[in-house]
From TrEMBL:
Keyword entries, A-Z: ATP-binding, Nucleotide-binding, Transport
Top-level taxonomic group: Bacteria
Pfam families per record: ABC_tran, TOBE_2
PANTHER family: SPERMIDINE/PUTRESCINE IMPORT ATP-BINDING PROTEIN POTA (PTHR42781), SPERMIDINE_PUTRESCINE IMPORT ATP-BINDING PROTEIN POTA (PTHR42781:SF4)
Protein name per its UniProtKB record: ATP-binding cassette domain-containing protein
Gene3D superfamilies from the UniProt entry: 2.40.50.100, Nucleic acid-binding proteins, P-loop containing nucleotide triphosphate hydrolases
A GO BP entry: quaternary ammonium group transport
Any GO molecular function: transmembrane transporter activity
Gene Ontology CC annotations of this record: ATP-binding cassette (ABC) transporter complex
Length: 344
């Protein structure tokens, strides 16, 4: 059993700059939790505190009930994989992986056995004698992962490990890492600013903003039921429409729709895939651009006041620039005072 518990942790840098603000989270045994947020949200600072590379200003961090808050990195049962790989270029692959095991005083035979096993695990069997500079970016990242795993940490920490790789390699590696994590059942905390990575890999997503938690939920819940306008706008593509509600009717430009909430300002949120279009000579929106992606089309729309919306359509050939359409949301949510007040 390996459980990471973070309780009321804050990190304040000189300035003062509050990087992490009273943050709490429990990562269950074998769970992969993703910290997701824009640059400056505090996610990497938090991960570095768990790894021991930053000290929290206040709060408590435990692994299996043991206090690790003030321990140095080498005394923590954690393994960290960095975006930059952080491999030693003067050593071959085997020596990179064996270094930590040698520091622990393991016999040569056991070191060799462990290194060969972890290389096979990450798909690099037979690469031990290769120089680091002889490897591709994806192979280097596999070595970085293997170097952490060979030490058999209780908690695996991943700090945007795929950020420097091209899209196809990134997608392949995230699938491989998820498979390895599930096979080993290793508790993992993963930092990314990529929504696709978080949605594809995580058991739960922690959406962070300004050092605080905006929402913690399963990926499908975060996507379909965002609790705040920030989460709604940050996860996936979302049409966020500012308007006014009067007598149970939301209005923005010529677009109006019934919403059973009290009068006042509100933000309407509609996913492009939930926004149906209907051609109409007196439509409330006008087609600005149509993009055909083969599997689907994306229609950019303008309301009368210039507000830009997007709709996903199955047949983009049915729409053209300048065409007037009416909007028919199939699902939507409304927000007020940074909280969701309506969902259909």
């Amino acid at each position: 059993m390996s459980v990471l518990k973070i309780t009321d942790v804050s990190k304040i840098f000189a300035g003062p700059t509050v990087a992490v603000d009273n943050f709490s989270l429990e990562v269950g045994d074998g769970e992969l939790v993703c910290l997701l947020g824009p640059s400056g949200s505090g996610k990497s600072t938090l991960l570095r505190m768990v790894g021991g590379f930053e000290r929290p200003t206040s709060g408590l961090m435990t692994i299996d009930g043991d206090d690790i808050t003030q321990l140095p990195p080498e005394r923590r049962p954690t393994g960290m994989v960095f975006q930059s790989h952080a491999l030693w270029t003067h050593m071959n692959v085997f020596k990179n992986l064996a270094f930590g095991l040698k520091l622990r005083g393991l016999p040569k035979e056991q070191i060799t056995e462990k290194v060969e096993a972890v290389l096979e695990l990450v798909g690099l069997a037979g690469y031990g004698t290769r120089g680091v500079n002889q490897l591709s970016g994806g192979q280097q990242q596999r070595v970085a992962l293997a170097r952490s795993l060979v030490l058999e940490p209780k908690i695996l920490l991943l700090d945007e490990p795929f950020a420097s790789l091209d899209q196809h390699l990134r997608e392949r590696l995230r699938e491989e890492v998820r498979d390895i994590q599930q096979r080993l059942k290793i508790t993992t905390l993963f930092v990314t600013h990529g929504q696709d990575e978080a949605l594809a890999m995580a058991d739960r997503i922690v959406v962070m903003r300004d050092g605080r938690t905006e929402q913690i939920d399963r990926p499908d819940v975060v996507y379909r039921e965002p609790q705040t306008p920030f989460v709604a706008g940050f996860i996936g593509t979302m049409n966020l429409i500012e308007g006014e509600v009067s007598k149970g009717r939301f209005a923005r430009a010529d677009f109006r729709i019934d919403i059973p909430i009290p009068d006042g300002p509100a933000t309407l949120a509609i996913r492009p895939e939930a926004l149906d279009l209907e051609a109409a000579e007196a439509g409330v929106a006008q087609v600005h651009r149509v993009t055909d992606y083969g599997t689907h089309g994306l229609v950019d729309l303008d309301l009368g006041d210039g507000t830009r919306l997007k709709a996903m359509v199955a047949h983009p050939d049915l729409f053209s620039e300048g065409q007037k359409v009416n909007l028919k949301p199939q699902a939507m949510a409304a927000y007020r005072d940074n909280a969701r007040v309506y969902r259909s």
